[in-house]
Amino acid sequence: MASTLGLLSPAKLNLFLHVTGRREDGYHTLQTVFQLLNWGDSMHFTPDRSGQLRLDMPGVALPAEDNLILRAARLLQRDDLGASIACDKRIPMGGGLGGGSSNAATTLLALNHLWQLGLEQAELQALGAQLGADVPVFVAGHSAWAEGVGEQLTRITLPEAWYLVIKPACSVPTGEIFSSQELTRDTPPITMAAFFQGVHRNDCEPVVVARYPEVGDALQWLQGFAEARLTGTGACIFAAFASQHEAVAVQEQVPARWTSFTARGVDVSPVLTALA
């Protein structure tokens, strides 16, 4: 079997998020654009024939049944296939950056490759959808326009940009925001052309700011330098800059009570690049 495979499990940004309706099963229909980043968690996979799955993820205490990495691995595991998996977490939990979904997708792609299962991308995406609505976009590995509940993906090319991402000192549970009474759920669908013309917003932002004032403080601060937006249901906020130099120059001024990072937007996931 192959030796250890190291991969960067990327974070994502939602460049906008419109909630267009709510289905009878409780899921929300939406429109969004997923921007992948060249920044994320470091993951290592070592396959074996032990029939066992072992995960080392320092600083994260999650029950095995709730851990998306182990759940993803079990969806692929058969016979005596086993693996040791290590994940060095940098993507904050409850930040709206898709860390858990990205880790699950990276696990599906890595173990399909290492265990030589030969599953096609569409099959892996279908498995990923069982784990979470954002997993298929990370399996596809391309920046995308998304509709439906996030599963209808259209690959797009986004303008080159560097992003400053700020994490206020709070975590926002996605379920809390999508179940809130005050969430707008009837935003009319827009066209892709309208998005590129700047006609968009994040419908979750007013709800999050009302419940988590720290997010509002960070948005207001970053707004002093560029157009600041919430990603997903937060808590992270971001702004786009034309160059790494500009993004870093603003990052150096971020108040010490918040954590931050800069990253370049990429249209192709570093996982796909590495596996190619």
Please give a quick description of this structure.
This protein is 30% helix and 29% strand.
How would you portray this structure in words?
Strands 1, 2, 3, 4, 5, 6, 7, 8, 9 and 10 form a ten-stranded mixed beta sheet that branches. Helix 1 (68-76) packs parallel to helix 2 (99-114), helix 2 crosses helix 3 (121-129) and helix 7 packs across helix 8. The protein folds into two domains: 5-156, Ribosomal Protein S5, domain 2, CATH 3.30.230.10; 162-266, 2-Layer Sandwich (Alpha-Beta Plaits). The model has no long low-confidence stretch (mean pLDDT 95). By secondary structure, it is α+β, with helices and mostly antiparallel strands. The protein has ten helices and ten strands.
Q: What separation lies between the terminal Cα atoms?
A: 18 Å
Q: What structural class do you assign from the helix and strand content?
A: alpha+beta
Q: Major sheet: size, sense and barrel closure?
A: 10 strands, mixed
The CATH topology of the largest domain, please?
Answer: Ribosomal Protein S5, domain 2
* Count of the domains: 2
Which regions are unreliable across 5 or more consecutive residues at pLDDT < 50?
none
Please identify, by name, the CATH architecture of the largest domain: 2-Layer Sandwich
Average pLDDT for all residues: 95
Fraction of residues in helix = 25-40%
* Multimeric state: single chain
Strand content: 25-35%
Q: What is the class of the largest domain in the CATH system? A: Alpha Beta
Order of helices and strands: EEEHEHHHEEEHHHHEEHEH
